[in-house]
Each structure stands twice: as structure tokens, then as C-alpha cells.
Prior knowledge:
The protein is α+β, with helices and mostly antiparallel strands. The chain has helices at about 10-40, 40-45, 55-75, 100, 105-110, 115-140, 145-155, 160-165, 175-185, 195-210, 210-230, 235-270, 320-335, 340-355, 390-415, 435-440, 465-480, 500, 525-535, 565-575, 585-595, 610-620, and strands spanning about 1-5, 50, 80, 90, 360, 365-370, 450, 490, 515-520, 550, 555-560, 600-605, 625, 630-635. The protein has a four-stranded mixed β-sheet. The longest helix is centred in the middle third of the chain and has 35 residues, at about 235-270.
Amino acid sequence: MKTVPEPVATPSSRGPHRRVARADALAIGAYVLLGVFVCLNYWADVHNRVSSHLPTDHSWFEWLFSHGAYSLRHLENPLFTERQNAPDGVNMMANTSLLGVTLPLAPLTWLLGPQVMYALYLGAALAATAGTSYWMLSRHLVRSRAAAFVGGAFLGFAPGVVHHANGQPNFVSNFLLPLIVVRVFRLAEPGRWRRNGIVLGLLVAYQIFINEEMLLLTAMACLVIVVAYAVMRPRAAWARAGTFAAGLGLGGALALALAAYPIWFQFNGPQSYRGLQGGVFHSWGEDLAAFVTFPRDSLAGDEAVERTIGLTEQNTWFGWPLVILAVVALVLLVRRSLVARILAVLAVLFSVAALGPKIRIDGEVTETDGPWAYIPPDVPLVEMMMPTRLALVTTAALGVLLALAWDAVADLRRRQDGPAATGGREGPATEDRDDTEATEGRDDTAGEGRPIEGGQDREGAGRRPAWQRVVGYAAIAAALLPLFPRPLPAMPVAPPPSFITSGAWRPYVPEGRTLVPVPIPSNVHGLSTLRWSALTQHAFPIPGGYFIGPNLDGDGVFGAPNRPTSSLIYSTMDAGTVPPLTAENRRQAVEDLRFWRASVVVLGAHPREAVLRELMTGLLGEPRRVDDVWLWDVRPLVPPA
């Protein structure tokens, strides 16, 4: 092993360091601009636009920003809330609550409101993920800052990530994952297992409050990497196994200690549940055609294609040029790069695992069994997993592979220019080296001090033609440019009534009572009325909602179990006409209002306003017109608790 000594800072060495710092700043700045660009359609009217792909999820996450602000302002337990699904409430740990983001950002939510915070955070999360990926690549895997920039951009703005940005910011909040991966593979550093274990434990505990599913995928990927490394380098792996295990045990114990109660609350607290709708997501496998299809929200994408594949999620959608490039890059790099071989294992394994229980081709479900056909759908945790999301690990592997490929092309010039071009360092970043590179990170700014193994023969390097570099860069650019993201599609949404936003509702809703909006929010109906709660930052509790909670049997379902009145409201909306009402309907309406502890029933502007007003009048009598809403004061019907 040849290790280049850390250079002493001299006036002559400050120039390269400044160039490196400038490159880092330019990379981060470009990621930020790209994050703003992706969210551009929201900023055109940030208070009155939501995702046109997943408007309900968009509204849910606006509600979550308000939940964090409300919990901190009132010093309430953020793991549970009664401001939605009153009076039963919602177990926030059993939902995608994003507490690790919404609580720290609560002061900004108080100041700017949840709509602005949603758009601001979404772009920032995309950029931050790209930024930490850039740091991981530039400090630990590649020499070229341009290579790290390309890899970081793909990891932060990959097709699957941008698709999840349509209403699901928890799946773009991956900025801790590169730091976790780096820390895992630094656990084997001699003499540093305590520090590395503690840092890993803190990162893992925090990630639990951002996205547990992405943490699980990262853990699975790390396990595969460790096993693959042990198979490829058994002696080196065995020599470091003790230190690695000690650090891993410390990190795991610390993470468990910090997150033990929230995890217990998630599975055993009020409104916890078992499974999710009988393993409904178990069948959602990735379509084989999706791997070579261009994503909708990209330069080369077409909305029409998702009518047959990917209407639900688009976790691969790499386009055929990138798939071809990845295959060629692996063929060229696997013989000389340990990292490339491990990436090949990751890409193949998780791509196959993402196919689900039945193989799908171009939207058609075949009779051929996929890997998930052999996994029982009721296995704990597995029953809630969506096979297609395993392909996000393939996406991560491709991002690292792109960085390695660019670095290998850049190395052609370094080899032509001789040792002076690399400051005397030998060998490219993608060379096959022993275990030290996989476990010893480097925190330097330009590659000095990095262990270099097995430098390749430099004889004749100067004879390499320049066209090879041109072809290499052009191939990578041709594969990535069609995937350049377009601004996320957005649609206008009606603002809440002034009766709600002005606070005119306050005299009608005393403490301990609820405001019942019509339609009652659910995962299908009531998008606009759910936003009443979000945009007032939970000023009043509401029944129903958009969340995951238990049904009467304790199994997980979307939304609250329907009461007779909410079912009647939804069926009337769908039919467009009011059915004949009976005395039993009116009795059930009063019973439901008492269950909800209702104070007033409020109907604002709505496409079905006329039929909903007719229905509620038939159940509760004539309403009053107050400001811009129809109001039924039901306090005489609902005695105090």
C-alpha cells in the first residue's frame, strides 16, 4: 500500500485548495437552483397550488408541517394528535409524519405558513440529498469533482426521486442516507469504532423520524454490500470484523435507546394497527418495461406512457440510453474496481427483488412468478413493503456508477498528463484496491492522504487518444440529458373560506368541540376541507382525515372507519343526487355528530355545493349563511361531554 502523506499548506498549495472549495460551492449552488426549478410551478402561486399527481398527499404533508408547528407551540406530544380524526386521533409514528423535519422547522411554519414551507422544503430536500451525495462521492470514492457532481445530481434528482417529489417529500428527504452509508463503512477504522458507532447511532435515530422505509432500504443495501465485500475480500473482511462489529453494536444500541419509546408507540400506542389492508402493496412490482422508459417529469418523458405502466409509482424509469451505459460501464470497470463489482451485485439483486409477485411487461401482468410470489404476504413489516420501491437501491447504485464512470474517463487525461496532473498520485479512483479504501474515508479536500493500492502500469499512457475521453463524456451526457427534470406538474386548488381563515368560526367552536367540514375529509373526498385544518395550523379539531389507522378489526386502513353520515355524504357526492332520506338517516346523523363532539357543520364553496347543501338540510334543517359558508349550529343537538 502506498499512502501519500498529508501536504503542508503552503502559498503554492493554496491555489488548488481554493479551486476545490470553489468547485464545491458551485456544485451546491447548482443543486439549489435545480431544486428551485423542479418546484417552479408551485412558486407561481404557492398558496393556491398543489401537486396534480398526488393532491391528497400534498395536502397531507402541508398538514404535517402544521402538526409540527402546533405540537411545538402547545408543547403537546408530537407522536399523537387529536386535531384530525377527532375524537379518536391519529398515531403519528404509525404514519409518514416527518417529525424530524416539521418540528425543527416549526418556527418557519409559524412565520411563513405550511404552503410556503412545503414548497421551500421540497426543493431544499432535493438539493440537500444531492449535496450530501456529492460529499460522499468526492471525499470517499472519486477524485474528479465533476464526477462527484454528476453522481450527486443523479442521486438527488433521479427519476424515481423526482417522481416521489409529486406530493411525497419524505421520499426525497434522503440527505442523511449518504452520511449513514459512509459511517457504516468507517466502522472498521482501527481505534475509531466508538466515535464512528456513536455518530452512526445518532444518524440512524434521526432518520427514523424522517423516513423509516428509506432507512430500511439503506440497511438492506449495506447488508448486501458487507456480505459481497466479505465474499470478494474474505481475509481483509475477517481482519476487520471485530472492530466493525463493535462499532455496529454500539451504534445500534444507541439508536435503539434513543428511538425505543417512539418505536414502541408506533406499534403499541393508541391508534396503532397491524398490517395494511391485507398486504395490498405486496403486489406492486416494477414493470420490466419501466426500466428502459423515460420518466414523465423529464425532458424526454411523455404523460401517455404512464397510463399503462407506472401510474402509481415510477421508481426506475431510467430510459434505454442510461441502461445501456450502465451495462457498458460495468463491463469496463468490474475487472479493475471492487466498488463496481459490488454495485453490480446491488443493481442486479434489487432490480430482481423489485419485480413483485408476478412479472409485469408493458402494463400486462404475466403468469410468471416473481420473487415475491415465494414470500408470504402476512410476514410482519414485509406485508407493508412495496416491492417496486426496492428499485430505489438500484437507483442509488446507478448514481455511484455514474460517478465512477465519469472519474474513469477523467483519469484518461490524468494518465496522459502524467503524475503532475494528480499531484504525484498514482492510479485512478476506480482501480481495484484492497479493503482499506472501502473502510477508510478521507476528509481531505483534494485527495491527498488517500490510500492508493495497486497502481496500474502507466507505461504508454500518453499514447491514449483524446477521442476516448470525448466519447466517454458524450455517452454519459447522452444518457443523462433526456432525464433532466421538468418542473413538477401542479394544479390550482380553492382557498379556504374567509369564514375559516379570518377566525370567524371561533365563537361557534368552544374548547373540546369539533368543527365538522362538509365533505368530511378522507383519502378520497374532502381534499379542500383537510386544508382548512392545515392552513389554520390546527386551530380546530376535525373528524375524519387522510391518514393510516386501524379499522374495527385493528388492521391498517386509509382514513377513519366511515360513520353512516360520512358514507351518506360520499355516496351523494358520487351520485350527484340526494337519495330519499328517512328518520333513521336523521337519527344516525345526530348520533354521529355526538360521536364527533360537533359544534358546527360548515359547507363552503365546492363543486358539489348544491347537492351537499340539500343533503345536510334534509338531515339537520335549514342552515344559516355566515360570511361565505353555510353553517348548521348543532350545539343544541350535542350536549356537553
